[in-house]
TrEMBL record:
It comes from Micromonospora parastrephiae. The keyword Transmembrane applies. This is Uncharacterized protein. The chain crosses the membrane at residues 51-75, 82-102, 132-155. Keywords: Membrane, Transmembrane, Transmembrane helix.
Length: 158
């Protein structure tokens, strides 16, 4: 495996995912802000949280890119469609397991049971992150497929 390629391509794929998600936010399709959710794990100031969250998201993207690259290596090939399938698996786990469990560990996120007395600054995402807008599951799925396709295409020759 080309480790320099994995690191560079992980950044490219994460940038593509982030750009697509930001465009969806600006278009009003979702209120899910990965950088804010991640950044508020470490600071309560929203502006600083977005900066910290951006770098946390890049690091997480690198970690997932390593997993994708390892999967491609195990399969002895990388293609856009295998990347897309991995993106679907990735987002499926994120929307059904990771995001619904996040309120249990996030210090600034309300839980579904917190009630009106909660002082949390972030609402819980809920199953499929539906609390951030009805189109959020579709938007999140598309951006993760973009991520997987990017990695599949970029790692094809490596």
């Amino acid at each position: 495996m080309d480790w320099a390629g994995w690191a560079l391509f992980g950044l490219v794929a994460t940038s593509a995912l982030t750009a697509a998600m930001l465009m969806a936010q600006l278009a009003g399709l979702t209120r899910l802000d990965f950088a804010l959710v991640l950044g508020t794990l470490v600071t309560e100031d929203p502006d600083r949280a977005r900066v910290a969250g951006f770098f946390l998201h890049l690091c997480a993207g690198q970690g997932f890119a390593l997993g994708y690259a390892a999967t491609f290596a195990l399969l002895h090939r990388a293609t856009w469609w295998i990347g897309a399938l991995l993106g679907i698996l990735h987002v499926g786990i994120a929307l059904t397991v990771i995001l619904p469990l996040l309120p249990g560990v996030h210090p600034r996120m309300a839980s579904e049971r917190a009630g009106p007395a909660s002082t949390a600054v972030l609402e819980p995402p809920g199953l499929f992150a539906i609390n951030y807008g009805i189109p959020t599951p579709a938007v999140t799925t598309v951006v993760h497929i973009i991520y997987g396709v990017c990695l599949g295409l970029l790692l094809q020759g490596n």
